[in-house]
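Hi P.,

Sorry for the delay on this. The queue was packed all week, but I finally got your sequence through. Input first:
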Amino acid sequence: MLSFKERELLKSKDTLIVGRKFIININEKFVFIVPYLDADLKMLHKFKEECRVLKIEPKLRHFFMHMK
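Then the structure:
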């Protein structure tokens, strides 16, 4: 459940980290709700570049890296 303040932040921002447990990302076609993963893990440059070209939100990239 999102607090009132978090709901208000989502109206003005596309990406929000909720309770250090979830990332909510809203774009023109989709809403992503994924577990929050620490950014301590290193991404391969090739994967990072593919994500950049596909315009994947940087905060979501670690989640997609684990799905491979």
